[in-house]
């Protein structure tokens, strides 16, 4: 699944959390020019454009952004607009600029439901029979796994352990929790069982990708990167972007994306 286009950059914390929680890859941009520059080869999956609360000109800038997306040679669809409740009246007679809207600050469930409804119209978006994390793909129906287009030869329990971890990226699980969640409460093996399977998985992932499963000392294991969203009280302590930093904020792959499965993805194709 290609990423969703998000405007503005950075997006509000509630929206990035909602998209991550619903499992959508995304990339934020600050202008229509950057949207064109960073557009994936297969195009954006859709767009979410957000008008900020209590920011003068924010809605006007968002509607101008939407208008530019609609005037492209191939108008971008679907387009979800997020607006403060106080700005709802301003949307009258502008329905051609967006496909649906949500209120500013909506929940994960609301954002996911709106996007799912829009994607059903276009046939794009996420389906739930495949987990993709970077080069790793797991087919939930056929129990196949592939890494960069190369099939992985996994035992049933290796696959189940990898599937469980990949479905909860960034979250730390103790060995005891993994035993109960993957092997089941009736399993009487010790925590050493988890360590053995983790070691085998890392070996099969290879040296380049073994880091996907990280050991958290004195706790357990974690799959993938952590996306930490600091509170407003921490914002003053965050380092500022330097001149060499990218021009846009990109989803950090902390949530798996999903799509339909036909065969293991080729090494030249995009995995998310």
Structural topology:
Layout: E1 4-7, H1 13-22, E2 26-28, H2 32-37, E3 47-50, H3 58-70, E4 79-83, E5 100-103, H4 108-122, E6 130-133, E7 136-139, E8 145-147, E9 150-151, H5 156-166, E10 172-174, H6 175-183, H7 192-205, E11 213-216, E12 220-223, E13 249-250
Parallel strand pairs: 1-2, 1-3, 3-4, 4-5
Antiparallel strand pairs: 2-13, 6-7, 7-8, 8-9, 10-12, 11-12
Structural summary, described in words:
By secondary structure, the protein is an alpha/beta fold. It folds into 2 domains: 4-122, 3-Layer(aba) Sandwich (Rossmann fold); 127-237 and 247-272, Arc Repressor Mutant, subunit A, CATH 1.10.10.10. It is 29% helix and 17% strand. It has 7 helices and 13 strands. The chain has a 6-stranded mixed beta sheet with strand order 5-4-3-1-2-13, with helices on both faces. Strands 6-7-8-9 form a 4-stranded antiparallel beta sheet, covered by helices on one side. Strands 10-12-11 form a 3-stranded antiparallel beta sheet. Strand 8 (145-147) and strand 9 form a beta hairpin. The chain is elongated. The model is unreliable at 231-260 and 262-272 (pLDDT under 50).
